[in-house]
From TrEMBL:
This is Phosphomannomutase. The keyword Lyase does not apply. It is an enzyme of class 5 (isomerase). Its EC number is 5.4.2.8. Keywords: Isomerase, Magnesium, Metal-binding, Phosphoprotein. It comes from Frigoribacterium faeni. GO terms for molecular function: magnesium ion binding; phosphomannomutase activity; phosphopentomutase activity. Residues 63-201, 225-325, 337-444 form the Alpha-D-phosphohexomutase alpha/beta/alpha domain. The keyword Disulfide bond does not apply.
Length: 566
C-alpha cells in the first residue's frame, strides 16, 4: 500500500484530484468555467505538471465562509468564486434562514463586477425555490443601497454580490441579517452556523438544488427612498457657496446613485471623471480599484487640475467607502481615513450637542484615538470595536462610527454599514459650510489640531505569498518582545492571543509607548497581509508644532517597525 511518498502515491493523489475535478465540472451550470476546468483536466491527463499544480490549487479546500461572507478570485474549482460555489452558499444560507424562522425573506443586490448579476439571480432562484421570499434589486447598485433595503423592506436577511475594492479578477458574497441584527453584517457564531449548512448543501451536486423564478424585482421607488433619506444628511448646507467638486466612481456603481443624492440635497452636480463613471468589470484605468492605492486617483487629480476644482470625492467600486482629496501646494493630497473620520466625527459630535442628544461614537481599534478625544470633549460615550464594520455598526446608541480604511457611518438610522455616499454628502456639506465662510478643509484640519491636539497615523503592510509567514512574524514578536520601537521605549503590550478585556482571542499585538504613542500588529482580514497601525499625538505648542511632533513620532515608529519585521 502506498504511504503517499512514492510515485504510486503521487499517481493515486492525482487520480483522486482528477476525480474531484471531473465531478465539479459535471455539475457546473456555467459554460465558461466548465470549459476552463475541462481544459485544465485535459492537460493534467496528458502529464502537464504545471496544470496539475493549477488543479491542486483550485481544489485546495473551499473558499471559507466567514463574517465577511465569501470573497476570492473568479474561476472553476472549490477554491474560487463561481456558480457552483454560489449555489451551494445560497442553498446553505436558505436552510439556515428556514431553520431560524417560519417565513423568512431576503433581498439581494449586486454590483458591476464580472458575474455579479449572475450570482445574484442564482441566489434569488434558489432562495425562492427553498421557500424564502426573495427580492432582487433592479440593477447593479451600491452596497449601501442593499444595506438600506434590508431595513427598509424589513426582511430577514440580505446578500450583496461584490468584492468591493478587490482586484478585478475577484468577486464576493456579503451577508446581512435583519430583525434584531438591524441590517448589520453577520458576526460569529452565525457565520459558523451558515458555513455548516453550506457544507451540508455541498455534499450533493448542485444540479439537484431546486430553482424557481418566483421572486420579486424591487422597483426604483426603493432606490429613490434611499436617495431621499441619504440626501437629508446635508441639511440646509447646499444653500451656501459651494466648492467646485470632482467625483470618481472608479469604474464602479456609485455615480448613478451619488449624482441623484447630490441633486436631491441641492448640490450642484459634481464634475465626473468621465473615463471612470460607468461600471466596468475590467477596471481599465486603474491597476487596483482601491482609492487608497498609489495611482488610483491620478485621473481624478488630472480632471481636478483641468477644471480648477476645490475638492475631489471618490467612491470605491461598490460605493461603501469614501476617499477625499484637497489641493495643497499646487498639487493634490488624499486625506487619510483617519483624517476624514475625525472631521466627520467632530461634525457628528457638534450635531449631537446642538440637538442635545446623548449617544456613542465608535471606531475600530486600529483607527485613530482622535475620535475618543472628540467624544470626551463633547461629553459623549466612546467604544472601541474589533476591526470590521460588522462590529462598529452594532454599537448601542451609535451616533457615528468609522474605520480607518475609508469606511464611515454617518446616519445609523438609515444604514447599518459603512456608506460612502452618505459620507460624501456629509463631507460635501461640511466643505460647503467652510467655503461659504471663506475657509477650507485644509484650514479645518488645522482648527482640529488646535481644538483636540494633532493626531498622526501611518501603516506598514507586508504582503505575503504564504499565510503561514504572518503567524511566524507575530510568533517571533512574542518570543522576542521589543523593549523599544524606534527611539521610543515600550511601556506595555496588550496581547489578544487568548482574548483581551471584552475582545475575543485574535492574533493581535498592541504596543503602548512611554510617550503615549500606539502600535498595533494584526493580520489583514481580507488580504494576505500583515498590517501595522501606528498612531501618535501631541498637544504641545501651536497647531504647527503639534503636527510636526506627532508626525515625527509616527515616522520614528514606522522606521522601527520596519526594522523589527525585516
Amino acid at each position: 500500500m502506498s504511504d503517499g511518498t512514492t510515485s504510486d502515491g503521487a499517481v493515486d493523489g492525482r487520480d483522486a484530484l482528477l476525480a474531484t475535478a471531473r465531478a465539479w465540472r459535471d455539475q457546473d451550470p456555467d459554460d465558461r468555467t466548465r470549459a476552463e476546468l475541462d481544459a485544465v483536466i485535459t492537460r493534467v491527463e496528458s502529464g502537464d505538471d504545471a496544470a496539475a499544480a493549477d488543479l491542486a490549487d483550485r481544489f485546495a479546500g473551499r473558499l471559507q465562509f466567514g463574517t465577511a461572507g465569501l470573497r476570492g478570485a473568479l474561476g472553476a474549482g472549490s477554491n474560487r468564486m463561481n456558480r457552483v460555489l454560489v449555489a451551494q452558499a445560497a442553498a446553505g444560507f436558505a436552510a439556515f434562514l428556514l431553520g431560524r424562522e417560519a417565513e423568512p425573506s431576503i433581498v439581494i443586490g449586486y454590483d458591476g463586477r464580472t458575474n455579479s448579476d449572475v450570482f445574484a439571480r442564482d441566489t434569488a432562484e434558489i432562495m425562492a425555490a427553498a421557500g424564502v421570499a426573495a427580492t432582487i434589486l433592479p440593477r447593479a447598485l451600491p452596497t449601501p443601497v442593499l444595506a438600506f433595503a434590508v431595513r427598509h423592506l424589513d426582511v430577514s436577511a440580505g446578500v450583496m454580490v461584490t468584492a468591493s475594492h478587490n482586484p478585478p479578477q475577484d468577486n464576493g458574497y456579503k451577508v446581512y441579517l435583519g430583525g434584531v441584527d438591524r441590517g448589520s453584517q453577520i458576526v460569529s457564531p452565525v457565520d459558523g452556523e451558515i458555513a455548516a449548512e453550506i457544507e451540508r448543501a455541498a455534499a450533493a451536486p448542485v444540479t439537484g438544488i431546486a430553482r424557481s423564478d418566483d421572486y420579486r424585482e424591487a422597483g426604483d421607488d426603493l432606490v429613490m427612498e434611499y436617495v431621499r433619506r441619504t440626501a437629508a444628511v446635508a441639511g440646509t448646507a447646499a444653500t451656501g457657496r459651494q466648492p467646485r467638486v470632482v467625483y470618481t466612481a472608479l469604474h464602479g456603481v456609485g455615480w448613478e446613485v451619488a449624482r441623484r443624492v447630490f441633486a436631491t440635497a441641492g448640490f450642484a452636480e459634481p464634475i465626473p471623471v468621465s473615463e471612470q463613471s460607468a461600471p466596468d468589470a475590467a477596471f481599465p484605468t486603474v491597476a487596483f480599484p482601491n482609492p487608497e492605492e498609489p495611482g488610483a486617483m491620478d485621473l481624478s487629480f488630472a480632471t481636478a487640475d483641468r477644471v480648477e476644482a476645490d475638492l475631489i470625492i471618490a467612491n470605491d467600486p461598490d460605493a461603501d467607502r469614501l476617499a477625499v482629496a484637497i489641493p495643497v501646494d499646487g498639487g493634490w493630497r488624499r486625506l487619510s481615513g483617519n483624517e476624514v473620520g475625525s472631521l466627520l466625527g467632530w461634525r457628528a459630535a457638534e450635531r449631537a450637542r446642538e440637538a442635545d442628544v446623548d449617544g456613542t461614537l465608535a471606531a475600530s481599534i486600529v483607527s485613530s484615538p482622535a475620535l475618543r478625544e472628540i467624544a470626551r470633549v463633547h461629553g459623549l460615550d466612546y467604544v472601541d470595536t474589533l476591526t470590521g464594520f460588522k462590529w462598529v455598526s452594532r454599537v448601542g446608541g451609535l451616533l457615528y462610527g468609522y474605520e480607518e480604511a475609508l469606511g464611515y457611518l454617518v446616519d445609523p438610522d438609515v444604514v447599518r454599514d459603512k456608506d460612502g455616499i452618505s459620507a460624501a454628502v456629509d463631507l460635501l456639506a461640511l466643505a460647503t459650510e467652510l467655503h461659504t465662510a471663506g475657509s477650507s478643509l485644509a484650514e479645518h484640519l488645522v482648527a482640529f489640531d488646535e481644538r483636540f491636539g494633532a493626531y498622526a497615523s501611518s501603516q506598514v503592510s507586508i504582503r505575503v505569498d504564504d499565510l503561514a509567514t504572518i503567524s511566524a512574524l507575530t510568533a517571533r514578536l512574542r518570543r522576542q518582545p521589543p523593549a523599544a520601537i524606534g527611539s521610543r521605549r515600550v511601556d506595555r503590550v496588550d496581547d489578544f492571543r487568548d482574548g483581551f478585556g471584552a475582545f475575543p482571542a485574535g492574533d493581535i499585538l498592541r504596543y503602548w509607548l512611554t510617550d503615549g504613542s500606539r502600535v498595533i500588529v494584526r493580520p489583514s482580514g481580507t488580504e494576505p497581509k500583515l498590517k501595522v497601525y501606528i498612531d501618535a499625538s501631541s498637544t504641545e505648542g501651536d497647531a504647527r508644532a503639534r503636527r510636526a511632533s506627532a508626525e515625527a513620532a509616527v515616522a520614528d515608529l514606522e522606521s522601527g517597525m520596519r526594522g523589527l519585521l525585516a
